[in-house]
Amino acid sequence: DVYKRQMRPWLAGVILSSAKLSYAGYDAASGVDVILRTEAREANKPIMGLETPEQQIGMLSSFPEAGQLAFLTSTIRDFDAAPVELEQLTEAWSSGDTDAIAAVTLEPMRKQSESLYQTLIVERNRRWAAQITALLDTPGVAFVAVGALHLSGEDGVPEMLRASGIRVIRLPQAEGLARGWRTSAFHPMRTPAKSAEEARRTP
């Protein structure tokens, strides 16, 4: 009872969101981020995060109470539909269909709460795009992996990079694959387009 009284809505929502994966038959330990991190360590590659766990916790815990409750309520309401939703998301991700990813995840989130969408997606994408831009100005080659929700639409990381004048090319599936994944791969290059408008038109 004490634990229940002290748990904030955002934390309950995060725990339930993680439980949805198991409920739908997915193993969080088999996630792409886990696999990539393991392979990077085995290859003695340096690893850095676009944000820290502390920043993630701070972002969620500082969210207004109404937003936290909206997140928790939505998670509870959609819990039973998790297998179907995650199957749709997996299919969209594996085929590189960013429009379908948006339809399954981002559009419902935005309808539920614009402030939640801005905090969890847009503001983070802006920070990440800025960090990726800085990486392009450093020597060597950097490999950056972000979640599927951050690749779609005008608020996605690729489009933000294009809008800032970075040339972003979507790689053919055969070139963007590791371990047989069929998902989308984007290649940002520090060769600037002639204008922001040209950057937006870059395939």
What does this structure look like?
It is built from 10 helices and 2 strands. Strands 1-2 form a two-stranded antiparallel sheet. It starts with a helix and ends with a helix. Helices cover 58% and strands 4% of the residues. Residues 174-184 and 192-203 have low confidence and may be disordered. The longest helix has 23 residues, at 114-136. By secondary structure, it is mainly α. It is globular. The chain has helices at residues 2-6, 9-23, 32-42, 53-61, 65-77, 82-94, 98-112, 114-136, 157-163, 196-201, and strands at 167-170, 186-189. α6 crosses α7 and α7 crosses α8.
Helix count, DSSP H or I runs of 4 or more residues: 10
How far apart are the first and last residues' alpha carbons, in Å? 55 Å
Low-confidence stretches: 174-184, 192-203
- State the order of secondary-structure elements, H for helix, E for strand: HHHHHHHHHEEH
